[in-house]
Design brief:
The protein is mainly α. Helix content is 53%, strand content 5%. The protein has one domain. It has a two-stranded parallel sheet with strand order 1-2. Belongs to the sulfotransferase 2 family.
Length: 165
């Protein structure tokens, strides 16, 4: 798409015709991750200044969906998967398999561009970590988180998410 804007320009600043033209000219890839794992990652990276995971989760819940930070907002509110026709949706935890497929489909050399991923170890670690962190939360927090991320849980196949129940 012809570049008629600065790099910082948000898509929402264009009219609908320009947005459709831009989106139609790109291969659109959406990387998604279980919302509970995103919360854990944000907490572990120190982006939450709370002393415990439970208090961090409460801060996220108290902020609400509109005032939540980008790292804790539901993906559906950030990426608009119901409005944008993504060409590929890549799930965290299956990166090696899905990126290999994506690179092959786009005609790029797979072996030279694909870094080493240890998806199995990542999934096992996050499964264990999710279990530990989930046990710290009250029943009310668990229910509120499931409600907070309900649209993500409906839009993407996070069947093993702790928030799915």
């Amino acid at each position: 798409y012809p570049r008629q804007h600065a790099l910082e320009t948000q898509l929402s600043e264009f009219n609908l015709t320009a947005i459709e033209a831009m989106l139609g000219s790109y291969t659109k890839v959406l990387f998604v991750r279980d919302p509970f794992q995103r919360l854990i990652s944000t907490f572990m990276q120190g982006m939450g200044s709370s002393p415990s995971f439970s208090s961090f989760v409460q801060d996220v819940l108290d902020s609400g969906q509109h005032k939540a930070s980008v790292t804790s907002k539901p993906l559906v509110s950030l990426c608009r998967p119901c409005l944008v026709q993504y060409d590929y949706v890549v799930m965290f935890g299956f990166l090696r398999q899905e990126l290999g497929h994506l690179l092959r489909r786009t005609g790029l050399p797979v072996d030279s561009l694909l870094p080493e991923f240890t998806d199995t170890q990542v999934r096992q670690t996050y499964s264990w970590l999710s279990e530990q962190m989930f046990s710290e939360l009250s029943l009310q927090q668990k229910q509120q988180l499931s409600h907070f991320y309900r649209w993500d849980l409906s839009a993407f196949p996070f069947s093993s998410s702790f928030l799915s129940d």
